Amino acid sequence: MALVEVKNLKKYFVNNDGLLYKLANKGPIKVKAVDDVSFKIEKEDTLAVVGESGCGKTTVARSVLRLIEPTAGEILYKGRSINNFNKQELKAFREDAQMILQDPRSSLNPRFIVEEIVSEPLYIHDQIKDDLNLLDRVWELLDLVGLSKRYSELFPHELSGGQARRVGIARALALQPEFIVCDEPTSGLDISIMSAVLNLMKKLQQEYQLTYLWISHNLHEVRYISNKVAVMYLGKIVEITDTDTIFNNSVHPYTEALFSSLRGINDNWNYQEHEIIEGEVPSPINPPAGCSFHPRCKYSFDKCKKVEPELKEVEIGHLAACHLYN
Amino acid sequence: MFKSQKFFRFQKKSARVIKIMKKDYKAYLGGSVIMLILISAIFAPLIAPADPYKTNVTKRLEGPSLQNLLGTDSLGRDILSRLIYAARPAVLVSFGGIIISVIIGIILGLLAAYVGGILESIILFIFDVIRAFPPIILILVLLSIIGPSLLSVIVILGVTIMPRYGRVVRAETLSEKEEDFVEAARSLGADNSRIIFKHILPNIFASVLVLSGMDMASMIMWEAGLSFLGLGLQPPLSSWGVMLQESYQYIQTAPLMILWPALAIMLTMLGFSTFAESLRVALNPKLNQEV
């Protein structure tokens, strides 16, 4: 049984405000942030979700933790639907599943010292029996993420980006979770700190048998950290398979274009001409008919403009949504 | 009981605030003015050199002398003593009114921002109704219904000013609750009361503090206006506002007389707002990098 299973997740943001809009009788504006996404994450796996900005990665991450309610679809955690959880079940789920937010610093309360930030989950879940031993536990957690004791008395603005990120990770680890959603955990960090954080996350995964849902747009990072990759385009998964396969034998034209940017720089640091996807991401309010990638796809033919391709198995464990392979 | 890490942390944090305020001249300035007013309010009978109600028509409208340090008013009463006694209603009205409006404002503002929906519309409607009337008319109507007394003046002033706080709290809460750290707390399983009291309130309190520092003085002025109309304090009780109203008729014969209550009001306002400002800075860790 998969640890996390997402079935046909849909999240539409609806805007039907505005008198003029109602008068024009056009019906509500729907932003299809996530449109029919399904995937599974096995225990101790890392599934990376990659894609351009605005393709719905973060919405998937927040839905998986029920921070927003999905429009349709189901999210199963250990085989149970999290959308039907009652208050106690939800609290138990919050203990098991943690999140690392995108911005390292703004995810920490500016009026809390590090000690309070790291110990907050312990207070919330009543895991503090003797308050006096609290500092030991906090120091232990800080040590785990490579920070010394003295940081426990600092405020978030006194930390560097990398240190703030480590504090965020320590907070996520405080309850010994099984599943962590990492929403671009390395964004805004410089390269050397990025790799330190990545190594830390990998070490922690091995040590504590963690399962990650890793949201990213950094392909180098994805290759290093994940063993499965889902490529998203305009709210849909267009290709999902093992990391090795996607880096070597990707089939979807969008994946190909996305990953060719990586290859261009990789060859002995000589910048090579590589495919650049033309045009812009279409608006998710008004996605193109048929395959949503067809206006930018160099292989597109008639069928692409009319029929929406389904996510189908190309080979075992390798799914893609493209008419070329059906 | 007090041997918990929570208590140590509170101790450490408040020690830090005090340490910062000790370096700030504004804290001394504001603090000493507030202390002065509080002391004269509490110990008025001990401090006042003369009976504030004793009239002496032969000595009316005199300037400062050794016997009457700040001179006498139109009925020959000692101005200094009256000034000291009048600190009592000033403190009661300004503190009481502000506390009432801050508490009601925070509760309604938080409810509006947090619950939303119909409740928010109702609360905003209440704010709008209160603000739509010119305050003086609203206060006059309410006072003539309830009847003039110190307590009713305090309550009515508090309720009239309350929408200012409600609106500020609602607006700040709306922006604060979308912050990343609030979402992080929610993903950790924090319930609404924890999010409100630990994450949102401490972060919006600065604005409320600054606003209340400014409103303290306007409370005193409102009380003065109401007393002038006979709806505030009843004679022979006195307040700075009443003294201001009494003395402006004699501004040409005894110009110094109006100066004293005006100075007292100005000093109070200055004291409250500088102290509030200093507290605001000390409470915000971002504004004190080098402690």
Automatic annotation (TrEMBL), chain B:
The cross-references to Pfam families, in alphabetical order and at most eight, read: BPD_transp_1, OppC_N
Q: Which organism is it from?
A: Halanaerobium congolense
In its UniProt entry, what is this protein called? Peptide/nickel transport system permease protein
Subcellular localization is given as: Cell membrane
| Keyword presence, RNA-binding | no
Any GO BP annotation: transmembrane transport
Residues of the ABC transmembrane type-1 domain: 87-276
Q: Which InterPro entries match?
A: BP-dependent_transpt_permease (IPR050366), MetI-like (IPR000515), MetI-like_sf (IPR035906), OppC_N (IPR025966)
Task: Tell me the protein family, please.
Answer: Belongs to the binding-protein-dependent transport system permease family.
Q: What is its main location?
A: membrane
Highest taxon listed in the record's lineage? Bacteria
A GO cellular component term found in this entry reads: plasma membrane
What are the alphabetically sorted keywords of the record?
A: Cell membrane, Membrane, Transmembrane, Transmembrane helix, Transport
Coiled-coil annotation reads none
Residue ranges spanning the membrane: these are 27-48, 83-104, 111-130, 136-161, 204-233, 253-276
Instruction: Write down the membrane topology.
Output: Multi-pass membrane protein
